[in-house]
């Protein structure tokens, strides 16, 4: 998940703001104040490039204090790693410029590879380590003895900016990640109730699909915000466990609601009351202001609904072959899913209470696993090769032509090709960066080349830049404009290059500005021409990984914990969503299939646990094993467009025969799981087929 997306989820649950809020103004004024403080301290310390201290404040500025601390921490680590790499590479290869730029390009490729395999803010730190080495090493070309001084100065400037940003974000009207988690979870519960209400009453499919995407992304946001909250205060450590557990329950409830929506129940005496109770419950929850201020009454109602769903309903002893209205397997199937939804929603509410009133975790309590992430190694290698190749080719041009200003072009190519490499649409992200940079140019010229040489001094500087930077910071607080606004702010300061003695010298100003703009355009061209990303290929790799996950669930001797499977599956879905959005409506079946895959996985886990139940007849256990092996073959070997194997038919056949042999609830639930798997795979046949690649 990108920082832009995370800020959108934290700040604007409805997708954007048209007017700045009080929180936006606080963020903007706090950021500009921190930047001025950093610059003033840099002046006092007589740092060589004081603009870097102020730029760092805007680079790490985030709406939530924990996000600032996290990004600042990994920026510091990345700067230190890049500084050490610059010293080492320049010391070893500084005597040979061609060898030096080659090794630096390889270093950028390695860092881009690592960055593409990580998540923010770790990914940001890895990318930073790559181009920081380039920023430090290129000015030392031909004079390697100064590289240590450059590295120390660079680190000092960065540390100063991070400290100023972190202290002000934590002390001046802070917005804390701990509070944001509780607020986000409350909104997610209400969104889930709204989704379930629409699902149970046949709501608009497009609205339900959009709400489903939002809920999945919110779950991933909660996982990331947990890390930021722990950086804000160690006391949040006691709440980390409820957050992890609640994320899994939230996703479980979403999966159950979707399954109930996808296969609505026929008229049935056992199902009508349950469906009515659930529909009434979620409708009241979504429509009641302040409903979650006290979860007690809601939890009690869910307890009652769950208890009814778990009871054995009155079923006919003999049904005709065409009597679908009294299908006892279908009845148990839907009652089981309804009970799952009610239980999961109840656990989410209890998780909310645990966050609001944390208690010490028992020492013998079994910890939940951390959320697992999907690693796209093919895309990571593509990004690495592209960044290294682009940087090397531009560096060769620089060395060949000996154009001094081309050094800035080399640096910008390295920065953009590495920093935006893993974005769902790197061209769009880089173009936004270019737009903001271009917009900053005239403002920097007027202030730096016209106003400040005539009216020097820090007071005049603040008077000129504050009216420019405050609107930019307001744009940074708005997710619709954060990319362009951030590029504007940091490049305005880069072009301005504020020193205590400002002079009129437009020649170097325009030459340096041109090199930066050209570097960004070259990087955009590289994204378009060199190994361009194919969203469909990425979608297929993630889909294939999900199918392999399901096959492992079927065949692996060790049965994984439900929470571990859920975390891995929904992490893959969270990575799949932005790629699906790049393909428009054509990607909707892939997203729908991925949700269906989660349902299939959860039912496979039910079947695996049923195999260990001594109360289940031996012949039923054998049938489960045969079905799971056939399902694994289906997932691994059938190609799109090919007819389905007998696996789906076998699932329905086994379900029918099991239901005829026994009316015991635990046996009927096995039949229900088989029916759910068959229905999910029939709904999205191509998703559950192996790619042709």
UniProtKB/TrEMBL annotation:
Entry annotated with the keyword Metal-binding: no
Lipid bilayer topology: Multi-pass membrane protein
Superkingdom: Bacteria
Keywords (A to Z) from UniProt: Cell membrane, Membrane, Transmembrane, Transmembrane helix, Transport
Keyword hit for RNA-binding: no
Main location: membrane
Compartments where found: Cell membrane
Membrane spanning residue stretches: 27-45, 51-69, 76-93, 99-118, 125-146, 158-178, 384-400, 406-423, 430-452, 458-477, 484-503, 509-531
Name the record gives this protein: FUSC family protein
Species of provenance: Mesorhizobium montanum
């Amino acid at each position: 998940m990108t920082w832009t997306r995370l800020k959108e989820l934290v700040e604007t649950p409805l997708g954007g703001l048209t007017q700045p809020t009080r929180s936006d103004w606080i963020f903007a004024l706090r950021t500009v104040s921190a930047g001025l403080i950093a610059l003033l301290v840099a002046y006092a310390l007589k740092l060589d490039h004081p603009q870097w201290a102020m730029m760092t404040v805007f680079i790490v500025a985030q709406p939530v204090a924990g996000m600032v601390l996290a990004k600042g921490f990994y920026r510091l680590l990345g700067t230190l790693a890049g500084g050490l790499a610059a010293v080492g590479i320049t010391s070893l290869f500084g005597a040979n410029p061609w060898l030096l730029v080659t090794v630096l390009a390889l270093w950028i490729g390695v860092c881009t590879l690592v960055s593409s395999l990580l998540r923010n803010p770790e990914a940001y730190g890895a990318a930073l380590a790559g181009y920081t080495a380039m920023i430090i090493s290129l000015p030392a070309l031909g004079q390697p003895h100064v590289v240590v001084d450059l590295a120390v100065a660079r680190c000092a400037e960065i540390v100063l900016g991070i400290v100023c940003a972190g202290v002000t974000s934590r002390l001046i009207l802070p917005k804390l990640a701990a509070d944001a988690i509780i607020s986000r979870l409350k909104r997610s519960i209400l969104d889930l109730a709204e989704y379930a209400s629409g699902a149970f009453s046949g709501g608009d499919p497009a609205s339900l699909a959009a709400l489903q995407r939002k809920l999945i992304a919110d779950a991933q946001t909660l996982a990331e915000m947990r890390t930021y909250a722990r950086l804000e205060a160690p006391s949040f450590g006691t709440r980390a466990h409820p957050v992890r557990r609640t994320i899994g329950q939230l996703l479980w409830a979403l999966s159950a609601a979707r399954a109930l929506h996808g296969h609505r129940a026929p008229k049935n005496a056992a199902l009508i009351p349950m469906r009515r109770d659930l529909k009434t419950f979620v409708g009241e929850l979504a429509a009641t202001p302040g409903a979650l201020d006290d979860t007690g009454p809601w939890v009690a109602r869910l307890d009652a609904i769950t208890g009814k769903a778990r009871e054995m309903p009155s079923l006919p002893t003999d049904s005709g072959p065409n009597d679908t209205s009294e299908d006892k397997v279908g009845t148990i199937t839907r009652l089981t899913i309804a009970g799952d939804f009610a239980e999961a929603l109840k656990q989410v509410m209890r998780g909310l209470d645990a966050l609001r009133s944390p208690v010490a975790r028992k020492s013998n309590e079994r910890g939940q696993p951390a959320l697992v992430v999907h690693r796209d190694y093919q895309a990571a290698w593509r990004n690495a090769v592209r960044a290294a190749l682009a940087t090397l080719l531009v560096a060769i041009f620089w060395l060949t032509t000996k154009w001094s200003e081309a050094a800035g072009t080399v640096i910008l190519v390295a920065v953009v090709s590495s920093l935006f490499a893993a974005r769902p649409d790197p061209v769009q992200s880089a173009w936004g960066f270019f737009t903001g940079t271009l917009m900053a140019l005239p403002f920097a010229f007027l202030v730096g080349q016209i106003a400040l040489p005539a009216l020097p001094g820090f007071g005049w500087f603040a008077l000129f830049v504050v009216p420019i930077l405050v609107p930019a910071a307001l744009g940074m607080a708005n997710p619709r404009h954060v990319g362009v606004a951030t590029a504007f702010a940091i490049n305005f300061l880069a072009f301005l290059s504020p020193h205590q003695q400002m002079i009129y010298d437009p020649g170097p100003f325009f030459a340096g500005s041109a090199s930066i703009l050209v570097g960004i355009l070259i990087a955009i061209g590289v994204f378009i021409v060199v190994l361009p990303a194919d969203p469909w290929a990425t979608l297929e790799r993630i889909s294939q990984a999900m199918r392999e996950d399901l096959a492992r669930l079927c065949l692996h001797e060790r049965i994984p914990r439900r929470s571990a499977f859920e975390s891995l599956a929904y992490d893959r879905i969270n990575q799949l969503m932005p790629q699906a959005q790049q393909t428009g409506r054509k990607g909707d079946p892939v997203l729908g299939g991925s949700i269906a895959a989660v349902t299939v996985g959860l039912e496979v886990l039910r079947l695996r646990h049923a195999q260990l139940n001594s109360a289940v007849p031996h012949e039923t256990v054998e049938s489960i094993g045969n079905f799971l092996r056939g399902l694994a073959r289906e997932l691994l070997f059938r190609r799109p467009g090919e007819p389905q194997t007998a696996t789906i038919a076998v699932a329905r056949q086994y379900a029918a025969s099991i239901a005829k042999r026994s009316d015991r609830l635990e046996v009927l639930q096995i039949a229900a799981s088989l029916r759910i798997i068959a229905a999910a795979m029939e709904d999205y046949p191509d998703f559950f087929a192996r790619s042709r690649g």
